[in-house]
Specification:
This protein is mainly alpha-helical and 211 residues long. It has one domain. 82% of the residues lie in helices and 2% in strands. Strands 1-2 form a two-stranded antiparallel ribbon. Helix 2 packs antiparallel against helix 3, helix 3 runs parallel beside helix 5 and helix 3 packs antiparallel against helix 6.
Length: 211
């Protein structure tokens, strides 16, 4: 029981620290979007605000405050934030057709996931503040169909961008986005311990890269 309490306190501390770091960065990125009106900054800003909402829910989970509706909402947010970061990266693809296809894919897969979460009970998959059971198979499949292609797109576009313009700041941004995206993807397939640590590291990397 004592080990469980210490572990829970650790998760509470990490999630709250991540939340406090993410909120001001989301504000900064939103202000940058309003100054530059860049689509990539728009989607990255949306992704960061979804990240804020997701981490806030993780804080609630860490204090054993949750419901089935919260869990369903969280699973949807995780998929959306990874896809939003990918949509920010996809703006650097020169082909308009590829960008449009990704928009259509994002809309269709997002709608399918939202519908499935609305009609399929997710169950109480959180036990003692961490994921103890997998969501229904259809939810896993649809979430993975969104998050894993998004993570791959982010990695490939990031590698190309770094090869064209290598610098420490860009490398830090790339690493932060990739870590946050992969963390969101792995959470779907039950890697909760990795999630908390990677989110904290990812937001630190994003701070270094953007500021």
């Amino acid at each position: 029981m004592q080990d469980l309490l210490v572990s829970q306190i650790s998760v509470q501390a990490v999630t709250m620290a991540t939340l406090l770091l993410t909120i001001p960065l989301a504000i900064i990125m939103t202000n940058r979007y309003y100054r530059k009106r860049s689509k990539s900054l728009l989607f990255w800003s949306i992704g960061l605000w979804l990240f804020v909402l997701g981490v806030w829910m993780e804080v609630m989970f860490a204090f054993n405050i949750y419901s089935e509706a919260m869990i369903a909402t969280y699973l949807f947010i995780v998929a959306l934030l990874v896809n939003s970061l990918a949509l920010g990266s996809i703006q650097f693809v020169r082909s308009i057709s590829i960008r449009r296809l990704y928009y259509l894919f994002s809309a269709a897969s997002g709608a399918a996931l939202l519908y499935s979460l609305a009609v399929i009970p997710t169950g109480y998959i959180l036990v003692n503040y961490v994921v103890a059971q997998l969501p229904p198979l259809q939810i896993i499949a649809l979430s993975s169909a969104i998050t894993f292609p998004a993570a791959v797109a982010i990695v490939l576009i990031a590698l190309r961008s770094y090869r064209e313009r290598p610098n420490r700041k860009l490398l830090s941004i790339i690493s932060g986005v990739v870590i946050v995206s992969v963390a969101g993807s792995l959470y779907i397939v039950q890697f909760p311990a990795f999630l908390y640590v990677s989110e904290f590291i990812g937001i630190l990397l994003l701070w270094y890269g953007f500021i």
